[in-house]
Amino acid sequence: MLAEEARRDGSSMKTIAILTMLFLPATFFSTLFSMPSLGWDQPDKIALYWACTVPVTVATFALWTSITQREAIRILARNLRDSLREKRKKTVVDRPGPGRWLSRRKSRRRVRDPTATS
């Protein structure tokens, strides 16, 4: 029973934190742009408000996700890396490496026999 209440409290706190992350950047920029000393009162500045607010909000959520979901992101990255390696192994054609290529080229050259007369 106590564990269930703690889980509900944790869920409620997470919801409050997410809503705060959503509204806090917009609140900050609206407060900043409402300062009369900065001269932001022209109507054409609304585009600047959104150009500042949206990227900061997205960056806030990206940072929060990367911190809270770090292990899930590592597992996803590891699975993606492994699948790309497997795909690469299947598609690589057996080509000679640089050492093998040079040794083939050397063997094709004609070597003059110093005892032979021309």
From TrEMBL:
Ranges of Basic residues composition bias in the record: 102-111
Keyword Ligase: no
Cellular component, GO, one term: membrane
Disordered as annotated region, ranges: 87-118
Residue ranges that the Swiss-Prot or TrEMBL entry lists as coiled coil: none
Source domain of life: Eukaryota
Entry keyword Glycoprotein: no
InterPro entries: CorA_TM1_TM2
Membrane topology per record: Multi-pass membrane protein
UniProt keyword list: Membrane, Transmembrane, Transmembrane helix
Chief site of localization: membrane
Membrane spanning residue stretches: 16-35, 47-67
Subcellular location: Membrane
SUPFAM superfamilies in alphabetical order: Magnesium transport protein CorA, transmembrane region
Protein name from the UniProt record: Uncharacterized protein
